């Protein structure tokens, strides 16, 4: 039974170390996020400028195609103008020609303006990419440090978990379940020493004489009726 107490104490110590290591590990994510915030900001902005740029380029293409189609129609009307038989037909063809010419000019103008906007967006993109790479450079040493510290923290946690498994194997399944149930409680404390006057070392509730002697002689795993910890006697 002394071996069981020993294994339980080991397990409790390791679980406390695991808890602390998990808390320490969890602190890395927000720290990394804060460090990378400026980089993430540039990345978001670059993505949105790229998206707008792609939209502008496809719109320019659409306008150029529309203008080409209108120019084709323009040629047809110009040919028709050569074949008019009277003034009325000529006037009608010229009116139609003027309308199409205006429409072509409007498309061309719009395509030109959009093309200029796209060029400005490209310049902005270049600028943003430079800013992004200097932002990345600026945080690189700190980021490397944080990632290395996180890796160490992870390795430490892994080591504790391995040791925990080893300690847990020293217990029977029943004893493991008792341990887990006790640890699942509010206080998370699993074991406490019985005081010299027979009280629970955690909540100071006095145990019945029968249970006190069971604990002192290490005959059974006794839990405090008041707070639930498993009690063990000082050697
Ligand atoms: Zn107690």
Number of domains: 2
Question: Which residues form runs of ≥5 with pLDDT under 50?
Answer: none
Task: Tell me the distance between the termini.
Answer: 12 Å
- Give the helices and strands as they follow along the chain: HHHHEHEE
Bound ligands, named by name, code or SMILES: zinc ion
CATH topology of the largest domain: Helix Hairpins
Return the structural class: mainly alpha
What would the principal axes of the Cα set say about the shape? rod-shaped
The CATH architecture category of the largest domain equals Orthogonal Bundle
Percent of residues in β-strands: under 5%
Describe the largest sheet: 3 strands, mixed
Number of helices: 5
Mean pLDDT: 94
- Top-tier CATH class of the largest domain: Mainly Alpha
Q: Strand order within the widest sheet? A: 1-3-2
Kindly state the number of beta strands: 3
Rg, Å, rounded = 40 Å
- Helical content stands at over 70%
Please tag this protein with its features:
Helix Hairpins; mainly alpha; single chain; binds zinc ion; 77% helix; 3 strands; 235 residues; three-stranded mixed beta sheet
Structural notes for this entry:
There is one protein chain. This protein is mainly alpha-helical and about 240 residues long. The chain has 2 domains: about 1-170, Helix Hairpins (Orthogonal Bundle), CATH 1.10.287; about 175-230, no CATH class. Helix content is about 75%, strand content about 5%. It is built from 5 helices and 3 strands; from the N terminus they run ααααβαββ. The chain has helices spanning about 1-25, 30-80, 85-170, 175-185, 210-215; strands at about 190-195, 220-225, 230. A 3-stranded mixed beta sheet has the order 1-3-2. Bound molecules: zinc ion (ZN). The site of zinc ion (ZN) has 8 residues, from loops.
